Structure prediction request, 429 residues.
Amino acid sequence: MSETARLILDGKEYEFPVVTGSENEKAIDISKLRATTGYITLDYGFKNTGSTQSAITYLDGENGILRYRGYTIEELAEKASFLEVSFLLIYGELPNQKELDYFQGSITHHTLVHENMKSFFEAFPPGAHPMGMLSSMISSLSTFYKDSQNPNRSIEDIEKTIHRLIAKLPTLAAQAYKHNMGHPTVYPSNDLGYCGNFLNMMFALPTEDYTVDPVVESALNKLLILHADHEQNCSASTVRIVGSSQANLYSSISAGIAALWGPLHGGANQAVIEMLESIKDDGGNLQKWIDKAKDKTDSFRLMGFGHRVYKNFDPRAKIIKKAADEVLEKLGVNDPVLDIAKQLEEVALNDPYFVERGLYPNVDFYSGIIYRALNIPTDMFTVMFALGRLSGWIAQWKEMHENNEPIGRPRQIYTGATVRSYAPIESRD
Ligand code: ACO
Prediction:
């Protein structure tokens, strides 16, 4: 007999089906709750709400497990290329050689962006945040590919949009960086791999030779894989909810970029380095900053600590920490900010406030340290996150689209004024 949950409301008993996932996760299916009882559920921040059933990513926050389509993040980060992982997330299986050659080839041939887009960059003020530029640029891509706006587009059209997005996001990200530097744009190179091409567009200059360092390329590949998906997080949920209105894929991804930008989500990687620099400039008194983070009257939080789902450890942080050590050693980087990070980690991990609340360093705590070592400027860190997360957003959007999920439209409990009459202005206090 299938499991059910019983709910007693106003003396009446109702039954709701229990849904069990492939890893034995349980949910009470309340989709008929309002229709049968007149009640809705209230769940700020959706802390207990499953918005969908998904076959993409499995995450066990208590045990620090993260798997894409059944493969552990540890194995993928060690053995796979980012494009292989993107294929896996989007299409459900690892590609065979023929499929990978086609996917890689198609992405390599869609890397150029329309020359008119240069004039958009020219209009941004100096020092414009690259996340703001990127979100606008991705949204504007839909205006160049009008077919993408048709909600009844064919599978082939959707495929082309997916390949264009994966191909063009690095081009636009590097252009945003070059715009801020005041340097000329470097065009994509078809003879470089996905990560190598991005690094070349970022760092090559007309005045000197640039060769992609294999240590840097491999670190970037790992970082992109570790960031590629994280089930129904803030930005993925945003992408799904925007897409549920049948908005085109470019606009949905643009909204995901905007959601990622916030310092409580992907923007934390920028905030971590800024915080570490402030601690250093302030004389390195760690206890002062720990006390600030614990003080409920102070809005300061230790950036890069804590996670909505991981209350034990973040498996991505473990891999990135090891990668950070390797990269810094191989590149011979000696960074005082890293010393502050190490000390802060130790103090926080031994403080009962952080231990009791399950606040551990998350992926963003260490990723910024590697990006710094790779010479990526701080305001580009969240862009780097977006480059990795793009394939997850696409996979989430595609799954939502293929499942014909209904438009996302939560309910509310209204707490405002009850009905009242319009009063003429002269009679108001
Ligand atoms: N510093 C100090 N205290 C914290 C921190 C922190 N970084 N994070 C949580 N807490 C405290 C809260 O004040 C709260 O304390 P209380 O129980 O005494 O009221 C308790 O820990 C639980 O925190 P919530 O905010 O309820 O946890 P939630 O799951 O809503 O938030 C979040 C998770 C947003 C990640 C939070 O830990 C945070 O703000 N961290 C800093 C920002 C950050 O690093 N974000 C990146 C997350 S990873 C990612 O998105 C890729």
Observations:
- Strands lie at 4-9, 12-20, 26-28, 57-60, 65-68, 71-72.
- The CA atoms of residues 22 and 396 lie 18 Å apart.
- The first strand starts at residue 4 and ends at 9.
